[in-house]
Amino acid sequence: MIPEIKHLGAKNCVTGSCHLVQTHSGSDSGVNILVDCGKAYGHDPELAFERFPVLPRDIDYLFLTHAHIDHIGRVPDLIDAGFQGEIICTHATKVLLIPMLHDTLSFTDKSDKQVQRLEKIIDELSWGFEYNEVFALKKGINFKFGNAGHILGSCFIRFSFPRKSAGDYTVIFSGDLGCTDTPILPDPDQPDVCDLLVLESTYGDRNHTGRKNRIDALNKMLHKAMNDKGIVYIPAFSLGRTQELIYELDRIGTKIPVFIDSPLGLEITKIYSDLDSFWDKEAKALKAKGDHPIDFKNLYSVERFRDHKKLLNFKGPAIIIAGSGMCTGGRILDHLECGLDDPKNDIFFVGYQANGTLGRRIIDKKVPVKAGIHTLTGYSAHADQSLLVNWVRAMPEPPGEIRLVHGEAKARQALSGFLN
Ligand SMILES: [Zn+2]
């Protein structure tokens, strides 16, 4: 069987990931597999479930490449719409799933009881699997996870679909692919050969500065804050970026206080700490030496809302890390409201800012700001152009077809020039 693949979300943009894989075998209804079911941000489109080519109740499997909300955020709505299949992901993603969704659900008008019910269903439907082992689905379909090195638990997926007359037809979904030399996480695994590669292209048109450059930039920012007693605001995703920043600040040995003003960020940091079997060699070696890689003396947790309120009046120097990463909501908004008008302060953007988000509007100077604005793509959790190209070239032979998704037109165009 050669499956039909439809890109229902993040086809031409970077948020709202959702892909449908359908096999049709004669009179049989075939197998319906959904890969990710994420929320869209800013101007990115989100296809209503009524317009899906398949009813949610007819989806057999929902695969989740990782636990970022733009890949999992619509799972509760999919269940409300009738989905009752299996949710398949890695072990670490399974651990991260409920905390991440709980945070999103707490901003909806659902009652506590409804939220609890949904979380119980998600927990019952979801299963964690190992990396690099082949597992069987129905109708002879197999899948295997490779480590994508993007965040804890992130994977790329290789499906193989049996064919009567030829060998298996194989498809790889890259999910979000990470960088090499990412703090805490091992580098992405190399992909096997495949007939079709569905590849992300977020940074298909540019190359990041290396880890050394971004540590230098972070260091410079710390010195500036020390000298002018300002506050450095870092809007960061609770999952992934926050832990990477803590790791790098720990290595630098910062003298000024660092506040993690994000209950979710703190909960996820605890999960990162607990799941040390997924860390890279460097992080494991630090822990073995007695230096916990994501904990240090000047690091402060701000959990309660009243402490967050107090922090709004804090005089620098300080670093405040708070969500959301694209300034679309969360505690970072209160901080920006208090500190944007002060030239002593700085905002340090370390992640992708989608079109239409406040983060992008600040960078594009569409919002009056007196604080310094800095962007550093080197902190991205996404592979850059050369890494994407090298990852594809590492395949034993080139894929039969490559489809670029999860990128704006400019990025897809630039990347396709290197892949064809
Ligand atoms: Zn992601």
Question: What do these coordinates show?
Answer:
The chain contains 13 helices and 18 strands. It is of the alpha/beta class and 420 residues long. It has two domains: 4-205 and 382-419, Metallo-beta-lactamase, Chain A (4-Layer Sandwich), CATH 3.60.15; 211-379, Rossmann fold (3-Layer(aba) Sandwich), CATH 3.40.50.10890. The protein has a six-stranded mixed beta sheet with strand order 1-2-3-4-5-6. A six-stranded mixed beta sheet has the order 7-8-9-10-11-18, covered by helices on one side. A hairpin with a 7-residue loop joins strand 9 and strand 10. It is globular, with a radius of gyration of 21 Å. The protein binds zinc ion (ZN).
Task: Describe the structure using short key phrases.
420 residues, alpha/beta, Metallo-beta-lactamase, Chain A, Rossmann fold, 2 domains, six-stranded mixed β-sheet, 18 strands, 20% strand, binds zinc ion
Can you count the beta strands? 18
What would the principal axes of the Cα set say about the shape? globular
Number of domains as seen in the coordinates? 2
- The percentage of residues in β strands lies in 15-25%
Describe the structure in brief.
The chain is of the alpha/beta class. It has 13 helices and 18 strands.
Please specify the SSE layout and strand pairing.
Layout lengths: L3 E6 L8 E5 L9 E4 L25 E3 L5 H4 L2 H6 L5 E5 H15 L6 H14 E4 L4 E3 L5 E6 L7 E7 L7 E5 L22 E5 L10 H18 L2 E5 L5 H12 L5 E3 L2 H12 L6 H8 L10 E3 L3 H7 L6 E5 L9 H8 L6 E4 L8 H6 L8 E4 L9 H9 L7 E5 L3 H11 L1
